[in-house]
Fold this protein.
Amino acid sequence: MPKKISKKILSFIFSQTLTFFYMYYELRPVHAEVMNQTIKSFGEYRVVLGKSTNMMEGIFIVYRGNIKIHEEREFGSYYWFGNHFDESLNGHDPHSGKDLTGKKNPNLVISHWTGGAHCCNYLSIYELGSTFRKLATVDGGSYGFRLVDLDNDKFPEIEFWDWPIDYLFSSFAGSAQGKTILKFSDGKYKVASNLMKRPIGQFKDLEKKKADIKVAFKQDKTPDIPYLLLELMMDLSYSGHIIFALDIAEEIWPTDRPGLAKFKLEFSRSLSSSEYWKDFFK
């Protein structure tokens, strides 16, 4: 007669069988449907990034334990861990898994590129606490981001370029952007006006810049507005001096060139179309 199998052995066999079925049925869809995948674990959370088997969709999946709690699929897109758009990081992710907000919960940083030639780069920050939630998705257009502690409180702000006038007065290459800073406060990321504002005195060589813009107007025979003027006006406007920026445009605009009033109106309206600029202006 065969000896009775002990309860410990039966328990072990049962647990291993459950593990096998879990691996097969729960993880199989990830491994079967996601190519070129990268998987990272953060405590009880597991995050999977990759491409669909036909390489047409970017995929971003989050598991909590054995349960899928978040999934994104987008045609032509790519997802990366961390701030992929900061070239100084060389593809490393020093931020995910750390507390970036002061709430004592780890955070997840995900970069998302939609695959277009001039658009669009997104940076998202999630909280991996008692609940999984998105804290911010920042639209960086064709430009990059920095996660950098600008006020020395040991938690990084999000620094990026806002782009409400891209293509409006010039080509993509000739358009200018406004440096914008977001800080986590009261449960969400907000425009940090105090970190963006600068006194007029910090703008060096203003008279030289005005002279250079006048030369650029004379040399450029296209309908485009000179980049030097757009750059200076965006820099001033995102530092708290939009009225001064519009006054400079009026001061140096060529007397024989029509369109000054239209330009000033369209410039102001375009800034007002940006959610970041509106928050800053308030």
